[in-house]
Amino acid sequence: MRVVLAEDSMLLREGLVRLLEEAGANVVDAVGDGEALVRAVVEHKPDVAIVDVRMPPSFTDEGLRAAIEARKQVPHTAVLVLSQYVEESYASDLLADGNGGVGYLLKDRVSDLDQLSDALERVVSGGTVLDPEVVAQLFAQRRRDPLEKLSPRERDVLKLMAEGRTNSAIARTLVVTEGAVEKHISSILTKLDLFPSEDEHRRVMAVLAWLQHG
């Protein structure tokens, strides 16, 4: 797995490089700002770009914006965003294109080598990975739930989908069959008016609808 890393702190950047190498990744470039990230992605065309949200010069959302721009220039590049804090708008912006292959993790999670490896594999394969704390806080920040058509069990399934779980993982968590999970997901997509389309990934669009309105 070829990785481009963007982190403005040199010490943290070097530490992440070592951690990623332990996880079996090949870090082809490690940079310190958003513009350098875009250049590195265009040059190396990595499997995944790992990006700190807050980077120079304003330390607001330069990293996220650079990741979105890099993804536009090199489509299908997976993106794993790291953040010190849960920031709702950043998670929503990351998911906005509906194409999958994205993740949002809190920095204190990346020290867990198994969790980091799993997150990378999932985003590179086109999945969506959200830190459970990110999901929980996004839900807590919402004032109302317009997804009234969903049953309690369908909400459980969609919540686990938002955490990036596979159908088999959802089935194990809810102690049901994979067939039951597939039926719930089909019902969720129908109730959310997400019909088959060549332009949109319906599962990701359902997760995005949940994060925006759930």
Automatic annotation (TrEMBL):
<keyword id="KW-0804">Transcription</keyword>
<feature type="domain" description="Response regulatory">
    <location>
        <begin position="2"/>
        <end position="122"/>
    </location>
</feature>
<keyword id="KW-0597">Phosphoprotein</keyword>
<dbReference type="InterPro" id="IPR000792">
    <property type="entry name" value="Tscrpt_reg_LuxR_C"/>
</dbReference>
<dbReference type="Pfam" id="PF00072">
    <property type="entry name" value="Response_reg"/>
</dbReference>
<dbReference type="Pfam" id="PF00196">
    <property type="entry name" value="GerE"/>
</dbReference>
<dbReference type="GO" id="GO:0006355">
    <property type="term" value="P:regulation of DNA-templated transcription"/>
</dbReference>
<feature type="domain" description="HTH luxR-type">
    <location>
        <begin position="143"/>
        <end position="214"/>
    </location>
</feature>
<feature type="modified residue" description="4-aspartylphosphate">
    <location>
        <position position="52"/>
    </location>
</feature>
<keyword id="KW-0805">Transcription regulation</keyword>
<dbReference type="InterPro" id="IPR001789">
    <property type="entry name" value="Sig_transdc_resp-reg_receiver"/>
</dbReference>
<protein>
    <submittedName>
        <fullName>Response regulator transcription factor</fullName>
    </submittedName>
</protein>
<dbReference type="InterPro" id="IPR016032">
    <property type="entry name" value="Sig_transdc_resp-reg_C-effctor"/>
</dbReference>
<keyword id="KW-0238">DNA-binding</keyword>
<dbReference type="InterPro" id="IPR058245">
    <property type="entry name" value="NreC/VraR/RcsB-like_REC"/>
</dbReference>
<dbReference type="InterPro" id="IPR011006">
    <property type="entry name" value="CheY-like_superfamily"/>
</dbReference>
<dbReference type="InterPro" id="IPR039420">
    <property type="entry name" value="WalR-like"/>
</dbReference>
<dbReference type="GO" id="GO:0000160">
    <property type="term" value="P:phosphorelay signal transduction system"/>
</dbReference>
<dbReference type="GO" id="GO:0003677">
    <property type="term" value="F:DNA binding"/>
</dbReference>
